[in-house]
Amino acid sequence: MVRIEDDVWADYEKVCKEKGLARAADIRMYVMREVNAWRRRQRDIQAAKNIAES
Fold first, then answer.
1. Domain of life, per the record (predicted)?
2. Which pLDDT band holds residue 44 (cuts at 50, 70, 90)?
3. Nearest CA to 22 among 37, 33, 9, 34?
4. Angle at alpha carbon of residue 21, lines to 15 and 22, rounded to 5°
5. 19-28 burial by CB neighbour count: b if 16+ within 10 A, else e?
């Protein structure tokens, strides 16, 4: 659960409507971008460790 002030949530709906998205879709896309970037960093870190250990 996420807590967001009512006025901010209402304005966020306007922002998303201008982008042609539902708020939920916009939030999911943001979360996926963050998670995918983190996963790439984790792979890079592991690859660097593997190279260092070989």
1. Bacteria
2. very high
3. 9
4. 90
5. eeeeeeebee
